[in-house]
Amino acid sequence: MTLTHPTGPATRPPPGPASATTSTEQNQILGGLLHRCAHHDEVALARLYELTSPWIYALVIRRTSSMSMADNAIVAIYTKVWRQAGRHTEHDQSILAWMTTIACEETRRG
């Protein structure tokens, strides 16, 4: 599977926080996709990427010094999400917050 960064401009800020209802619904959708990723469903990973990459990429591009570094970080982040999908539980933070933590950890290293 090949991941590419979103086509929108890198300077566009990530979307703001969602309302409680929207946030809960969003987490249910992302949670279902993450659960499917834990069972090696590549279509679920593609959809998870499609839904979350605008936020994650905007964060990563701000934390790295080049598009090349950002692109490499994105691949590493979604690889880690894929590998650790089964470890996230409903009692953990929201899916997007969990992925944001992974992105911050990944960009701190490189």
Fraction of residues in H or I helices: 55-70%
- Spell the H/E element sequence: HHHH
How many DSSP H or I helices?
4
What is the molecular shape? globular
Q: What is the structural class?
A: mainly alpha
Number of strands: 0
Largest sheet: none
The CATH top-level class label = Mainly Alpha
Structure report:
- This protein has 110 residues and is mainly α.
- It has one domain: Rna Polymerase Sigma Factor, Chain: A, CATH 1.10.1740.10.
- 67% of the residues lie in helices and 0% in strands.
- The chain is built from four helices and no strands.
- α2 packs across α3 (67-84) and α3 packs across α4 (95-109).
- The longest helix has 22 residues, at 42-63.
- It is globular.
- The two termini are 23 Å apart.
- Mean pLDDT is 84; it is low at 7-12.
Features of the shown structure:
110 residues; mainly alpha; Rna Polymerase Sigma Factor, Chain: A; 4 helices; 67% helix
Topology:
Layout: H1 20-38, H2 42-63, H3 67-84, H4 95-109
Helix pairs in contact: 1-2, 2-3, 2-4, 3-4
What's a quick, concise take on this entry?
By secondary structure, this protein is mostly helical. It has a single domain, classed as RNA polymerase sigma factor, region 2, helix turn helix motif (Rna Polymerase Sigma Factor, Chain: A, Orthogonal Bundle). The protein has 4 helices and no strands.
